[in-house]
Design the sequence.
């Protein structure tokens, strides 16, 4: 009995000690994730310490290296266990907002950020008109590195001549066309294709303008084919390390992060400039590019004091001084306007080439997750394709896949009018409130029925029983599947309100 | 069907014999299936019978038991405590107390939300004017509800089990006291754990480990496959909920335009099986061949040959694989060498990783390179164990080398290494390392991409699963379904093969 008592007492003591060591109220414990590139962690830790000293607060920061492309996935896996402040690549913004992993910037802070940073980077940090994070760099674009000993200067502007030069020298042309949608967008933008996805504040796609599947898209693929079908083409993902590969490249399309490797490999022979132009059917197109940035975000908290401190710290970590220090150590091009004007930044050859290319760049917005994967498919198909029809087919498949991806989040109106095929029946989300609508053209047939289904299900609860407006247009009896059966052929607008679970039908 | 006697059978024509065999097979297969169903029915019936018996037993114990036993039905451990087993009784009592407290303060909360997985989402972007910041107020967290709900259910099951144990203990105590024997003390119980109950002591840790690290995650994964848990419904900011069989429908029946997951799944599954087959058997037979060659009489420097082969094991696999992956790249060392020798031109470099068929062949070949040494080591030992007199007598009888291999070496090897063959086949189905490090799943396959699979030509089910969960899509629900599918494929194959291989039969049957 005494032994038992002793054990219980011991346990009680352990717990009470644990309670004592829990928290000291005036110290903020924060976790910061930044690039795993060597030295970045130390720099961040230094800057945080300096911030704490200047503002006289106690911060105990844990700085961890998590690559910018990986940070979003890790945050989404568990927002609660994620870092308080984290750096990420900008293509992840919509996902992070959707997962509730980013705190919106306060009005005054937002105004400061807008004033201090380049407009492109501010646009890249915004979603649905509000700023959700802080621009850290403005250099996530690509341009062309080349070997001066192989490529004569007068050929630089012409894609065709560059390929010829590489072929003649028996060297490669590295361009990640088949392995990355980010790089092959260059050709689509060149021919005037538009690819815009508009997200709402919840990170869902509302509308999209995607003209890859068009004649301009075919021309873009034809332009790419010139390189894809050349023996010099390589889609190696090694970047400028290709300059020293066993079969070396003479041209590598890559970004500023690769400058040091390139300079080491080629020395004085290294050149960097904007991307060339290609010619299809007598018309010349200047290659475009994506222009993006690295962003720094703050995780939402419930504690207002901590939230305010984190926002102040985030602003400090992305201010002119911080960005210049980052530039000096790692050559990351700043987004801060004052930092961009500094002599050192202006004379950096990599950043100069990027600036040249940026004239033709498209600010990288947000894209649905599967877009990055699916955009590879038409280019891979073009590598083998020989006719225009095959190219069109490849683009059509791309378009279908993207639409199917979007439909997976919404509703589809299937029925006799689209042959019960899901692809053409995707209903469009109408702004706020989860209201979906579609206009269909019902032709005369024996059975003019159909119903609204959630993607990947054939549920029957969104049929004729919940029609509130336009009941006179449809048959009263929907059959066992509760279908909406139109009485007359014609054009109908069908609107489904997911929240209220009602359907409105209007004849046009 | 009538069975023919030997003579009747021999009288049949060639075609007749074949037909007879087929008929015999078919007539035997239906009773077998029937028997299987009967046995299944019997075991299900037996299960319910057992539960019924158990319940009746508990009721009878209550009726016939002493008052201590009766009270123990409600206050667990009372019977033990009041009859000299103080420590044991106290443990029972504490367990009950902990259970009740947990259920009142936490368990009820989680269980109540388990059926909906949460109804109130977080309030996002709440403006705080004093500090000019936006904060968020968390609501339900579907992930936690699912996890803690599951744990609570398991806790309840554990409680019921303990309660039954408590009843049984009291029943035994009643018996012992009635028959006038001495009740075992706590010390005796502890001693028995090191003596006649030693198996329990030994198994406690492994069983706990398996439950915590294997069983619970598997049950959790199965539950996830019935929810819509993905990037858009992450549980924390956007609740996820039960969706029934939707995910299974999506994988098998849903198609929309070119989006057709079942086609993608079929293609990846068929390549996975193809890969597992070639990777396993190429290693097996080539490894054996190398071992036989090195074992041959008259081969000099045996140790050196073995040493050279074993070197590939000495280097960590992921280093050598990454290096080999670079070597075989379009602009890598191999192509560079071929180009310098003038055997290829820049336009005809061998596209080891970018041509779909070639990539598949290359991964199998490289897998042979890293797999042979292991097989060689295993076979060397077994080959040395085959009685030499078998070979000698067969040589005298005039058997060729091939006949010796087919009739002596191979059966012996298969008998001993059957289970190894099975595990390595299963291991290859889930061979993440080789595929991921060599090709990363590539080359890009437009059909697989547009059909919604986000996979490449050399992706196995397991690397596909990896892409789906860690890529831009974070499609956990689909990954859970694929996980279940991988489990089914592996389980079915293993069961069939395990019942077919000779190793599982009696050793006497061999030869």
Sequence:
């Amino acid at each position: 009995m005494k032994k038992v008592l002793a054990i219980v007492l011991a346990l009680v003591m352990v717990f009470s000690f644990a309670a004592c060591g829990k928290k000291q109220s005036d110290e903020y414990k924060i976790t910061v994730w930044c690039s795993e590139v060597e030295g970045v962690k130390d720099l961040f830790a230094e800057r945080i310490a300096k911030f704490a000293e200047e503002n006289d607060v106690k911060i105990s920061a844990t700085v961890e290296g998590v690559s910018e492309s990986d940070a979003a996935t890790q945050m989404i896996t568990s927002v609660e266990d994620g870092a308080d402040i984290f750096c990420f690549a900008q293509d992840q913004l919509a996902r992070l907002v959707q997962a509730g992993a980013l705190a919106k910037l306060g009005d005054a802070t937002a105004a400061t950020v807008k004033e201090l940073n380049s407009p492109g980077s501010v646009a890249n940090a915004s979603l649905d008109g509000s700023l959700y994070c802080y621009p850290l760099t403005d250099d996530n674009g690509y341009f062309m590195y080349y070997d001066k000993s192989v490529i004569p200067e007068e050929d630089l502007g012409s894609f065709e001549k560059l390929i010829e030069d590489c072929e003649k020298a028996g060297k490669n042309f590295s361009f990640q066309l088949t392995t990355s949608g980010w790089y092959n967008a260059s050709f689509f933008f060149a021919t005037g294709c538009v690819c815009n996805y508009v997200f709402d504040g919840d990170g869902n796609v509302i509308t999209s303008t995607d003209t890859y599947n068009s004649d301009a898209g075919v021309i873009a693929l034809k332009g790419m084919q010139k390189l894809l079908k050349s023996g010099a083409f390589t889609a190696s993902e090694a970047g400028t390390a290709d300059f020293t590969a066993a079969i070396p490249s003479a041209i590598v399309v890559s970004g500023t992060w690769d400058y040091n490797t390139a300079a080491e490999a080629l020395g004085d022979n290294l050149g960097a400039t904007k991307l060339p132009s290609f010619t299809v059917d007598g018309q010349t197109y200047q290659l475009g590019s994506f222009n993006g940035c690295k962003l720094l975000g703050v995780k939402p908290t419930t504690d207002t004091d901590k939230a305010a401190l984190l926002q102040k710290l985030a602003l400090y970590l992305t201010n002119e001084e911080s960005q210049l220090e980052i530039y000096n150590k790692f050559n990351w091009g700043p987004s801060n306007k004052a930092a961009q004007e500094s002599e050192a930044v202006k004379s950096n050859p990599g950043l100069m080439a990027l600036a040249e290319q940026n004239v033709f760049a498209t600010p990288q917005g947000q894209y649905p997750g599967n877009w990055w994967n699916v955009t590879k498919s038409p280019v891979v198909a073009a590598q083998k394709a020989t006719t225009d029809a095959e190219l069109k087919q490849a683009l059509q498949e791309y378009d279908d896949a993207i639409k199917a991806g979007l439909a997976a989040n919404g509703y589809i109106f299937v029925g006799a009018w689209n042959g019960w095929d899901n692809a053409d029946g995707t209903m469009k989300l109408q702004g706020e409130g989860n209201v979906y609508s579609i206009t269909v053209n019902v032709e005369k047939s024996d059975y003019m029925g159909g119903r609204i289904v959630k993607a990947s299900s054939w549920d029957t609860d969104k049929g004729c029983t919940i029609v509130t407006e336009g009941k006179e247009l449809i048959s009263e009896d929907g059959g066992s599947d509760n279908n909406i059966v139109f009485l007359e052929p014609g054009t109908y607008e069908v609107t489904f309100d997911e929240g209220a679970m009602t359907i409105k039908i209007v004849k046009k | 069907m009538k069975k023919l006697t030997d003579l009747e059978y021999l009288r049949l024509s060639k075609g007749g014999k074949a037909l007879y065999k087929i008929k015999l097979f078919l007539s035997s297969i239906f009773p077998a299936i029937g028997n299987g169903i009967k046995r299944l029915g019997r075991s299900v019936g037996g299960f319910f019978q057992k539960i019924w018996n158990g319940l009746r037993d508990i009721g009878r114990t209550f009726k016939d038991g002493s008052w201590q036993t009766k009270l123990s039905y409600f206050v667990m451990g009372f019977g033990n405590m009041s009859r000299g087993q103080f420590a044991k009784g106290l443990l029972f009592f504490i367990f009950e107390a902990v259970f009740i407290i947990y259920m009142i303060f936490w368990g009820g909360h989680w269980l109540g939300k388990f059926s909906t997985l949460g109804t109130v989402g977080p309030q996002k972007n709440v403006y705080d004017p004093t500090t000019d910041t936006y904060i968020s107020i968390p609501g339900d967290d579907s992930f936690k509800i699912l996890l803690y709900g599951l744990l609570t259910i398991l806790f309840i099951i554990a409680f019921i089990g303990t309660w039954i144990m408590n009843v049984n203990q009291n029943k035994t105590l009643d018996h012992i006291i009635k028959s006038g024997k001495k009740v075992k003390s706590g010390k005796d119980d502890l001693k028995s754990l090191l003596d006649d109950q030693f198996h329990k002591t030994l198994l406690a840790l492994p069983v706990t480990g398996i439950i915590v690290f294997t069983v619970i995650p598997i049950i959790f994964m199965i539950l996830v496959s019935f929810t819509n848990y993905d990037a858009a419904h992450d549980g924390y900011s956007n609740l996820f909920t039960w969706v029934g069989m939707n995910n299974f429908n999506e994988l098998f029946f849903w198609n929309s335009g070119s989006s057709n997951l079942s086609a993608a799944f079929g293609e990846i599954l068929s390549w996975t099986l193809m890969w597992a087959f070639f990777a396993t058997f190429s290693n097996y037979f080539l490894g054996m061949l190398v071992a036989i060659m090195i074992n041959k009489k008259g081969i000099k420097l045996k140790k050196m040959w073995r040493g050279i082969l074993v070197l590939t094991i000495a280097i960590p696999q992921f280093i050598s694989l990454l290096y080999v992956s670079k070597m075989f790249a379009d602009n890598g060392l191999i192509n560079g060498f071929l180009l310098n020798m003038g055997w290829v031109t820049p336009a005809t470099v061998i596209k080891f990783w970018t041509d779909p068929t070639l990539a598949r062949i290359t991964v199998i070949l490289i897998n042979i390179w890293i797999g042979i040494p292991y097989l060689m080591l295993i076979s060397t030992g077994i080959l040395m164990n085959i009685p030499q007199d078998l070979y000698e007598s067969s040589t005298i009888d005039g058997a060729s080398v091939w006949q010796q291999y087919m009739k002596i070496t191979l059966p012996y090897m298969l008998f001993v290494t059957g289970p190894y063959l099975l595990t390595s086949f299963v291991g290859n189905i889930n061979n993440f390392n080789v595929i991921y490090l060599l090709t990363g799943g590539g080359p890009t396959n437009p059909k697989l991409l547009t059909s919604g699979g986000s996979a490449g030509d050399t992706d196995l089910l397991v690397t596909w699963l990896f892409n789906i969960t860690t890529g831009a899509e974070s499609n956990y629900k689909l990954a859970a379904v694929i996980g279940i599918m991988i489990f089914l494929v592996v389980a079915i194959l293993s069961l069939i093969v395990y019942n077919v291989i000779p190793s599982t039969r009696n050793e006497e049957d061999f030869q």
In short: The mean pLDDT of chain A is 84. Chain A is about 35% helix and 25% strand.
